[in-house]
Amino acid sequence: MSVLGWRVAVGSDDAGFEYKTRILSDLDEDSRVGLVVDLGVRANEHTAYPHVASAAGRLIQTNQADRALLICGTGLGMAIAANKLQRVRAVTAHDSYSVERSVLSNNAQVLCIGQRVIGLEVARRLVREWLGYQFDPDSPSAAKIAAIEDDLA
Ligand SMILES: O=C[C@H](O)[C@H](O)COP(=O)(O)O
Description:
Blueprint: E1 6-12, H1 17-29, E2 33-38, H2 49-61, E3 67-72, H3 76-82, E4 90-92, H4 96-104, E5 110-114, H5 120-130, H6 141-152
Parallel strand pairs: 1-2, 1-3, 3-5, 4-5
Helix pairs in contact: 1-5, 2-3
Bound molecules: erythose-4-phosphate (E4P).
Catalytic activity: D-erythrulose 4-phosphate = D-erythrose 4-phosphate
Family: Belongs to the LacAB/RpiB family.
EC number: 5.3.1.34
């Protein structure tokens, strides 16, 4: 997190557009968030999820964003596509505990959610919770993340 707060990239395909729109306004009102980058899609735009996920992953790789939130029908394709990029750790999570561990255990920068899987209010709550977690680089989990990165080097 920068001194100004989280820099969050947000993207969806057309299957995630409704939730993206609602959650973008939540992020705008969240004092923990310093910058929001909307990667689309916009209304009546039909960019397929791999392209949106790649754009988000590149922002993470180049340290232009701390976190990315990606929403498609299931949250699955977005995670698969984002994880193709080195040093990007993306997860699909639809419950509170998994969202917590995605950050505290896995240091995942990218959370993927499925609009067709969970209700809007649950999605909004999970995003609120997600922003409250920060990976501890001194925790025992850090060596496991390093092992993932070493395998990719
Ligand atoms: O993981 C993929 C997403 O759920 C996407 O929104 C829908 O993909 P499909 O149109 O290929 O089913």
